[in-house]
What we know:
By secondary structure, the protein is mainly α. It has helices spanning 32-42, 54-67, 77-86, 93-109, 112-122, 132-140, 149-156, 171-187, 193-201, 209-218, and strands spanning 2-6, 12-16, 124-126, 129-130, 238-240. A three-stranded antiparallel beta sheet has the order 2-1-5. The protein has a two-stranded antiparallel sheet with strand order 3-4.
Amino acid sequence: MTINVKDWNRKDHPFVVGPRNPWWTPYGAIPSALKKAVVASEDANFYTHEGVDYEAIREAIKTDLRKGKFVRGGSTITQQVAKNLFLTREKTLIRKVKELVLARRMDDALSKSRILELYLNVVELGPMVYGVGHAAHYYFGKHPSALTVRECAFLASMLPGPKVYNPYRKLDRVMKRSDRILRRMVAARMISREEYDAAMAEVPNLAGLERKIEKTLETPPPEEKPPDEAPGGGPLVLEPVPAAPREPVLGEAPAPKSPDAE
């Protein structure tokens, strides 16, 4: 399956969903701490609801009415997968109804582990950084299976949207949110007190981040306000790919160069 993703300049790029993508990380290779951090951050009732969290939707409606505008969507992880793979980000009632229907169908057809695997492999975590496999190498220079608890919380903290929780510009904001996620995890007994203390004492070793910051600040990406659908979904924009000529695909290894091209 191939979908379109948008870069931070709103340009479309094809993206491979599935094992053909070399960054694809199977469920078993994703550390338990990362799965728990994402659930604590994005969808606390993920394992008990049937794709749609009606209580979260009620709370979102209350928030929207109180604020007098659409500020919270109440989307579950399953809804976000449905939206990311099959729908657009347009804020219309029709799109929301489609999302709810698709989420219920996905919950009936797929296991929770499969839904979480899809989510963690297509979610946006940086400038043209999609999925935890790419993000783990991009920020920490390691495979996802080697991530520490702190590093897992760090990645989860960017899920509302890497343009909002952008370590290039707002590293303190990302660290504070990762602290909150760790507190949720220990409160929910997802991690032990010892793991929590060790994570809080750890300073993430962001391999090459200073060089990335210097390069990025030469042409900095646009900064955004917190996404309207916080805390349910981030600003990932994925749309079905229209028929088009074959072009290089993000996630596929580039074709080897001809000796004549040297």
